[in-house]
Amino acid sequence: MFTANRQRRARVLLIAGGIGITPLRALIEELRVKRDSLALIYRARSWEDLVFKEELEKLIRDRRGTIHYIVGQRGTADLPVDPLSAQTIRRLVPDVESRDVFICGPASMMERLDGILRSIGVPPEQIHFERFALI
Hints:
It is built from four helices and five strands, in the order βαβαβαβαβ. It is of the alpha/beta class.
């Protein structure tokens, strides 16, 4: 289980897949972040699958952070390639390697992101996983 006590960097990236947003939503309130130092990437298959959307937008706005929604089914015209590729993460959060990264979602997504984040220079000690979505 992750808590804000695992935060080592001033800047933070949260990555949620589906219902994996639940523990990240709670974590947002705990994190010690300054303005413009919090980013959230929220991946879902459809807009209807997004939970806490209005609440998240307020929490992130109050912290002057950024939310990136990646919505759609992989392999469709809208998302023909991996929606959480190294290129996408780097484009959305150019300074990702200088951040703590907290991830929660399906096991396959978290495993893939671990490799992707390491490949773009995020040290393993800055990558934190929550296994909430596996229950």
